[in-house]
Amino acid sequence: MGKWRLWNISISILIFLTAYNIFLTIKLMYSATCADHPPEVLRQENGKVNEFIECNEKYPLQQEPAVKFNMTLYENVAEIYKNLEQNKKYHLNLNLGLGRSDDRLNYKLYDNIIIGDKFIQLSEKYETCLATQSSLDKIASLIESSLYWGGPISLATFASNELELNRLLLYIMYLRKCNTRIRDKVSFHLATIKGPTKFTINEERLESLTCGNPMGVLKDLIKDKSLKRGVYPWRLKTPYPQNLLRNLARKNCQSKYVFLTDVDIIPSKGMAESLNDFFERQFCEGKCAYVVPTYELDERVFFPPNKTDLIRMAKKGLARPFHHKVFIYNQYATNFSRWQTYKDPDQKIRVSHPVTNFEFLYEPFYIATDTVPPHDERFVGYGYTRNSQVYEMFVAGYEFYVLSPIFTCHWGLQVKRSRPPWREHQNNLNRKQFDQFKKEIFSKYSKDPLNMIKH
User: Can you tell me where the transmembrane regions are (predicted)?
Assistant: First the structure.
């Protein structure tokens, strides 16, 4: 009912504004004639009264501008009407004039711009919601995640300008058109830098896109000549707001537990179903977070169907702990050796071991209720985004437990030389932000278990 009411109101506004413009035009065309002026302004000329010349000489009527139609207003209303049409056609709930602002008034946030057809039912069925975030260039990873994850998915997306927004919406509609899993499971949310006032879904192009090559379609969208100067300005001058998007994705989950990941972190098959069974058996008396081990995969292999095959790949050098070569402290406290040697009695999820060697810069992918501290949104770009939040969890008294036999994977064995220089620049800026952050954490909890203030 709410959508139809908005539709009727919008049509009424369009009709009213059009009629009002016509009324003003007619009124101005037939008002302020010479008959409205005193007789003394009229002048005899060759025995004839020349009303038109005399009136225009003494009383300029400005008739030319008065009869002009307000095209700007008409075009804006037409754009609103077009957006409403596309909203209805594509099950889109997006009005760029109604977004909420973030705490620092830098971004506009839009919740549930598209709701998965079965998202509500899945949220009731599954104990855990997969919360993730992405920009246009990585969003195709959602295809593989939706294949293995059976539960609801909450995806926060980011567009830095109107051009990128249009491409992002186009690709989302393409994914929904071609993939029933995404259409059913995924609810999309949006964050933009303040600026875009309208959007356009290129319907002809959408109809022409074939479903057999989603990565090829994405590459074509990114390589589009019209995007050459505008597609990803955040890489250089507008850092990607990871923590803002993480909070946006988390808060739109409807299940009891949230599994917070990046979009290119792929969960193992059947994880959502197994977690239902685990949380029926598991009871946490305090503050608990459940770590899911994450590995990098050589791009030449198939995604491992189970823990046994993953360990076999690791022994052959075809898989290794996430960020092991790039930044070992990222996942080191998970203790992958202990996880690999843990003997699973069956395929049910169990705690293989607690994290006993927590250290600063640890940033596991974990499952917890959404009562954990929010991600601090002052950290934008790369560096100190996830580990600052995990550090606060540790100070606040959360305990971390590693789960087996489930896991997640990231495609590609990463090396430092593959990192672009702008990432290190953003990391340095966030390092300076962390100096203030750790003081605030000490003030908030009156604890400094890692002696961060001293160091």
Answer: 7-30
